[in-house]
Amino acid sequence: VNGSTVAGIFVHDNVLNTNGATAGAEIKNSTINGSVTATGILVSGSDASANIHDNSSTITGMLIGVDVNGGSAALYRNNITANGTGVRVNNSGNLTSSTENFITKKTGDGIRIEATAGTIGVISNNDLSGNPLGNAIHNDAALVSATCNWWGTNSVTGVSGSVTGLVTYDPWLI
Fold this sequence. Notes:
Layout: E1 5-6, E2 9-12, E3 23-28, E4 31-33, E5 39-44, E6 48-53, E7 59-60, E8 64-69, E9 72-76, E10 79-81, E11 85-90, E12 94-99, E13 102-104, E14 111-113, E15 123-124, E16 137-139, E17 144-145, H1 156-160, E18 163-164, E19 167-168
Parallel strand pairs: 1-4, 2-5, 3-6, 4-7, 5-8, 6-9, 7-10, 8-11, 9-12, 10-13, 11-14, 12-15, 14-16, 16-18, 17-19
């Protein structure tokens, strides 16, 4: 998907798939905006994957901006703003990386990693500020590396107050 304006994108692997086929998508240079009850990009199923990059026009106005629900996704240079939750990972979903994104202005968590999540790659060089009602990162799974991010503050108390769960956040960007 390149250069589109859409209300949502669904990358789905059929659980009845027995021939080894995969579902993959590259999502770039697009604007995704829609309903506060919907998901912007949903990556669902163990053989579903998405390379989500260079969406500077925004993934906005959704209940969840990017939902990695059993599939895998890489996030690079996106503007994921004004959603309920910016990014959610659950049901053995894998977030292979999250770099150089603006994941800001959420009414919930910036990045929510649920206990059922799969592998979480490095989360670095992101702007995770402006999440007043939730956490920049809420992690219910194993230790997550989230160093070299901007948290909206330079203070230890402010940065540590932006995370929940096992998150390595030091050093951070100033």
